[in-house]
């Protein structure tokens, strides 16, 4: 973000489940391909939850886009300071910060050098620019690709976009011209490639592999207590009736058993519809009980303790929707040699 701005989220490859990411942006259209879900392990772990949250504030701005911008802006240096005095991970100028900066981590200060504050402010800026750009594209006030417009706005301000009549032009200079392409070039690094789902979506693949593939397409979606059904994420029940530690109370996403319900339904083409209770899922007679950790296969469902359930990937890894304030992700898990509660469907 330049001085001119003041003018206005190993196992994956081993399972062989994913296709190559390809960005497809339509001219003069608000449609944007911005990477979907964050590829686990690609951003510093202390920033991952904030990148996911910042990239979930509007449909046009995704976690991989937030991460790609930070890559270009500061290369993940929270103390970055540009010659123009742009500050922090997201390179905010003093004149712009008050509009978008908040004390998001509730540490008593709003600071562009605070990574949580900076990442969330970046998401707010991008979403505000996207909303304005959609209106201006519809009215013909500007032309071009929505993503390019948002990126130019981030680099030199939305007034710069209006002066140009879109993302390309002379106002803002060469840096603003090249900024969208730099961010788009970084997107694949942070993007979880999409996988088709439905009956036979991995031709000839084992049932368990299909379970894993379905669950993996939901990486990065929010945990939502009571969320998830056979078709995908749903709006959950308020987490205990109060906002969680991230300030959210009602979200659209999955809880642990909702994710399992969805993945098994997708793998079976809707033939196996499990209960939404983890205890019912691991006791369902349509599945085969697995009691030996050495016999676990990808796609088996495991109840590590009462009240939680997840999907085995192999290599001591699982895909899960862990808890309130978190998101669907790959986690480490070493199954016990005794007392394993697991079941295999298909």
From TrEMBL:
Any one GO molecular function term: cysteine-type peptidase activity
Top-level taxonomy: Bacteria, Bacillati, Actinomycetota, Actinomycetes, Mycobacteriales
Any Pfam family the entry gives: NLPC_P60
The keyword NADP is annotated on this UniProt entry: no
PANTHER family: NLP_P60 DOMAIN-CONTAINING PROTEIN-RELATED (PTHR47359:SF3), PEPTIDOGLYCAN DL-ENDOPEPTIDASE CWLO (PTHR47359)
Entries under InterPro entries matching the protein: Lysozyme-like_dom_sf, NLP_P60_dom, Papain-like_cys_pep_sf, PG_Endopeptidase_C40, Transglycosylase_SLT_dom_1
Protein name according to UniProt: NlpC/P60 domain-containing protein
Family annotation (PROSITE patterns): NLPC_P60
Keywords, in A-Z order: Hydrolase, Protease, Signal, Thiol protease
UniProt similarity note: Belongs to the peptidase C40 family.
Matches recorded under CDD domains: Slt35-like
SUPFAM superfamilies: Cysteine proteinases, Lysozyme-like
GO biological process: proteolysis
First and last residue of the signal peptide: 1-22
Domain NlpC/P60 intervals: 205-346
């Amino acid at each position: 973000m330049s001085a001119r701005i003041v003018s206005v989220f190993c196992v994956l490859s081993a399972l062989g489940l994913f296709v190559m990411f390809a960005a497809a942006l339509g001219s003069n259209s608000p449609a944007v391909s911005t990477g979907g879900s964050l590829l686990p392990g690609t951003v510093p772990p202390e920033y991952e939850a904030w990148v996911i949250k910042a990239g979930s504030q509007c449909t046009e701005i995704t976690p991989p886009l937030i991460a790609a911008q930070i890559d270009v802006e500061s290369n993940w240096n929270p103390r970055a300071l540009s010659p123009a005095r742009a500050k922090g991970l997201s390179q905010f100028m003093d004149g712009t910060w008050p509009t978008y900066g908040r004390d998001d981590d509730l540490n008593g200060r709003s600071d562009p050098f605070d990574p949580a504050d900076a990442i969330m402010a970046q998401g707010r800026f991008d979403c505000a620019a996207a909303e304005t750009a959609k209106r201006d594209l519809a009215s013909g006030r500007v032309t071009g690709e929505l993503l390019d417009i948002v990126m130019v706005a981030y680099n030199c301000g939305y007034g710069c976009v209006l002066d140009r009549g879109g993302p390309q032009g002379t106002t803002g200079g060469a840096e603003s011209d090249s900024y969208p392409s730099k961010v788009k070039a970084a997107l694949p690094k942070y993007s979880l490639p999409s996988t088709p789902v439905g009956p036979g979506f991995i031709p000839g693949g084992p049932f368990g592999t299909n379970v894993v593939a379905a669950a993996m397409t939901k990486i990065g979606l929010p945990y939502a207590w009571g969320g998830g059904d056979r078709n995908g994420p749903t709006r959950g029940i308020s987490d205990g009736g109060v906002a969680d530690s991230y300030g959210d109370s009602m979200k659209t996403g999955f809880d642990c058993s909702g994710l399992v319900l969805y993945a098994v339904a997708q793998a079976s083409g809707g033939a196996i519809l499990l209960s939404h209770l983890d205890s019912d899922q691991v006791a369902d007679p349509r599945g085969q009980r697995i009691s030996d950790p050495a016999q676990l296969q990808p796609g088996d469902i495991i109840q590590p303790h009462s009240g939680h359930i997840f999907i085995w990937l192999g290599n001591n890894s699982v895909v899960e929707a862990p808890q309130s304030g978190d998101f669907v992700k790959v986690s480490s898990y070493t199954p016990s040699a005794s007392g394993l509660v697991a079941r295999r469907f298909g």
